[in-house]
Amino acid sequence: MIKLLLMLLLALLARPAAALDAAAVRELGFGDNDAKIAAIAALVAEGDPRAAGLLQAFADGELSTSGERVLVVQGDAGFDALSGAKLEALPEAEAREDVVVNNRLRRELGIAVAALRLVSPQRETRLAAARELAGGADQAMLPLVQKALGKERDAQVRRLLELTAATLELKTGSRNSRIAAIRTLGESSNPATKPLLLGLLEKRKDGSYAEPDAELRAEAHKSLRALNGRLAWGDRLSLAFAGVSLGSILMLAALGLAITYGLMGVINMAHGELIMIGAYTTYVVQGWFRNGPHFDWYLAAAAPAAFVASALVGMALERAVIRWLYGRPLETLLATWGISLMLIQAVRTLFGAQNVQVENPSWMSGGIEVMTDVVLPWSRIVIVFFAAAVLAGTWLLLVRTRLGLYVRGVTQNRAMASCVGVPTARVDTLAFGLGCGIAGLAGCALSQIGNVGPDLGQGYIVDSFMVVVLGGVGQLAGTVYAALGLGFANKLLESWSGAVLAKIAVLAFIIVFIQKRPQGMFAIKGRAVEA
Amino acid sequence: MTRLYGPRGWVAIGAAALVLFAVFPLLALAVPETSGLHLSAYWVTLIGKIMCYAIVALAMDLIWGYAGILSLGHGLFFALGGYAMGMYLMRQIGRDGQYRADLPDFMVFLDWKEFPWQWWNTGHFWWAALLVVAVPGLIAYVFGYFAFRSRIKGVYFSIITQALTFAAMLLFFRNETGFGGNNGFTDFKRILDIPVTTPATRVALFAATGAALIGTLLLARWLTTSRYGRVLAAIRDAEQRVMFCGYDTVHYKLFVWTLSAILCGIAGALYVPQVGIINPSEMSPANSIEIAIWVAVGGRGTLAGAILGAGLVNGAKSMFTQVLPEYWLYVLGLLFILVTLFLPRGVMGLIPGSRSR
Fold first, then answer.
1. Under a CB-based contact definition with an 8 Å cutoff, are residues B74 and B168 in contact?
2. Which ipTM was obtained for this model?
3. Domain-embedded: residue B270
4. Residue at which a domain ends, from A62, A90, A117
5. Phi-psi domain of B111 (left: phi exceeds 0; alpha: psi -120 through 50; beta: other)
6. Which of A181, A312, A490, B56 is the most buried (most CB within 10 A)?
7. Which residues face A371 on adjacent strands?
């Protein structure tokens, strides 16, 4: 990116237009460090975007001197630093001397280049430059920043620039402009401004304030309070979003389990591997779309494919193995564990033990920047809605269709359902396939935010069982509440105690909870007693 | 005596003891290495390791085969016993570690200045031996008390034990827990001030494991043939009826559950000095669930079957991981499926005349 920009700028340089400040360019090459810094400031003050290329080349260590001239050397090509014209012959290496860049100069150069980029026509360049300046700008930049602010139309860049300008004014400006600056800072939501305001309120050792003006201090107090409030909201917002996001993922992973385990009573330890199959199906479908024009829409094909692939595998398993173990949950557990081992190894054999790369479609990359430092990634937002859609679809399927009616009937009373003509064996297969298909959808969603590897499912199996156990067996509502609750609890605790301890605390909580309510949050009331 | 085994059974146990305590040590120590009969260190360690697993399998058979409780967290108790012994072994390294410090290397690496509280007194063998028994026993007792009291059973219990070992694994992966994090303990030098890797020490550990195995078998047999064992089997088959008969099933289950955890801890403590490493992956749910398949392959509720199953599966595992490593998971997976579908009584069920349960 920088190289490309440089080319562009150098191409501009090459045009025989008004040249840069010749004295400043000379100083860059021959002056001592202080003179060089002064020259950099002079070039920045001029505000010529072409100087950015030269300064960037300087920062990259491409500046040389040869005799009286200052040169930019890139590989075998040389350019005149002043006019930008390409040299016909590059002087021999012995006849040149590199201009040394030390850390102090590099810092100055970085900020100077950013300042000059502020006037670039591309929004992205300006945004990046404004971000860099917000990190640490120099007093000398103030006029330039204000000039750029005068021309800037983009809201995001403007916000950053206003902040930078306020920071600078706070240090040197007149009393009125300082008060204005404090107010501007109070309106920001950037955590970096907090130390600035705190600095104003600091007390020296002898009890006097660092800032003698009481009115200024009061303003700073007010701004600080507003800022703190906003930052706290930002934290809360990102925490809530992380909770919803994790909850929706857990729900996707557990929803299939709520059908196979919750409704049918089949412990399927291979559930995680069906999620993995969904993720790998997404990977394969992505491969077909790779070089086509519709790559952005591959998910529209991948989601149904993942559903079908996992559902088929699940139905095959039900027919081949699980059917023979109904009513023997412990044996089912062991057999399905065996299945999961074989599926993992099969995927390793087919795709290799390494993770495979699943790319987001372009419309899913990036995110909404709600505040500085609070970015909600599109991929996670999409997954939240996807989870809601899958949940709605499953619910409709269970309560509004004949298959759903059969499934519920078989769950409630298998013998009676069979008596009135429900083909229970087929219903079992289809319901199991449905649960597994939903696992496949979960895999398709997970492939967008995490690694896709043979061990993908292993990480979710304990969590999804916890969701089902916590939610209670026999219905979907419990699964939804349990998933969201666990997601929130996990993220909340994480912000206090770190990820691992949070996980342990949640597991401990579930173990205790099960003591109190062994049937989960939403137990089906009835007379079903263990045989 | 006669209650435990018939004459044939005692002869078999005597023969096994003879092989473990006389023949193998002789082959390993007295027979020169050039001879074809020599038992190399590799085999001594492998058989010793499998005997540790066999003790775990016996412990599992006690609760699964006789009390009908399938634990998917027994790897935790095994690892806890191993860690308790590991702490002692780490202390025995003394100043011979990489950093020549009083503290174990990983603590020096973390810049700790003194032993954390968990390590209190672990320099003494008797304390470590006490921990080997007490820690798994206590954790199992507390966990079991709450679980059995609220009548958690069947699959629910299995899943919660799995969550328990999973949580413990996460905990032990942390450096702050004080047990070496990811790497666990390794590079042991001495046990009871004797170098741990010499052939004689290896054989001694091997014999100790053999003795523990035979002792566990006899204890389990004695327990299961007693009146207590009959109540246990009744609980397995119809817990509610046993309760209606006036038995407090919680304490019956709690006793065998705690005993089983302690046996696992002892097995872990014997395992660590022989294998030379203990790390949190021993607590992974996959390891614990594998224990169940050893018992299932051998045959549940037979005790001898548990030993047989542990030997068969682990023998096959070490063979496959050497020759065809990529196929081992297929074999193990198939074992899980085939045994549950077609061999509900395990290999012991194939032997005519063997009365299971």
1. no
2. 0.88
3. yes
4. A117
5. left
6. B56
7. A374
Q: Which amino acid is at A276?
A: M
Contact list in B for residue A465 (CB cut-off 8 A) is 159, 162-163
Look at residue A99 and tell me if it is in a domain: yes
Residue A29 domain boundaries:
2-117
- Its domain, for residue B338, covers 7-350
Which of B60, B149, B160 is the mutation pick for testing A, counting most A CBs within 10 A?
A: B160
- The DSSP bridge partners found for residue A74 are A77
HSE-up of residue A511 (Cα within 13 Å, Cβ side)? 25
A249 falls within a domain: yes
In a domain, A448, yes or no: yes
Domain count, chain A: 2
Domain edge (last residue) among A71, A101, A117: A117
CA distances from B127 to A341, B120, B134, B195, B274 (A): 40, 9, 10, 20, 20
Summarize pLDDT for B101-136 with one digit per residue, the tens. 888 888 888 888 888 888 988 889 999 999 999 999
Number of domains in chain B: 1
Are the Cβ atoms of B167 and A504 closer than 8 angstroms? yes
Contacts of B158 in chain A (CB under 8 A): 330, 333
Contact A339/B326, CB-based, under 8 Å?
Answer: no
| pTM for the whole structure | 0.76
Model confidence at B276, pLDDT cuts 50, 70, 90, reads: very high
Residue B355 lies in a domain: no
Per the domain annotation, does B182 fall within a domain?
Answer: yes
Do B336 and A507 count as a contact with CB atoms less than 8 A apart?
Answer: no
> B329 CB near a chain A CB, below 8 Å?
yes
Chain B residues touching A341 at Cβ < 8 A: 329-330, 332-333, 336
Q: What letters, b where the CB count within 10 A reaches 16 and e where it falls short, cover B227-244?
A: eebebbbbbbeebeebee
Percent of chain A exceeding pLDDT 70 equals: 89
CATH of the domain at A305: 1.10.3470
Are A145 and A151 spatial neighbours (Cβ–Cβ below 8 Å)?
no
Question: How many Cβ pairs within 8 Å bridge chains A and B?
Answer: 114
Q: What is the pLDDT of residue A530?
A: 44
**Spatial contact of A307 and A278, defined as CB atoms under 8 Å apart:** yes
Whether B39 is covered by a domain: the verdict is yes
CA pair distance A220, A182, nearest whole angstrom: 6
Q: How far apart are CA A344 and CA A54, in angstroms?
A: 56
Residue A167 placed within a domain = no
Kindly state whether B344 is in contact with chain A, defined as any CB-CB distance less than 8 angstroms. yes
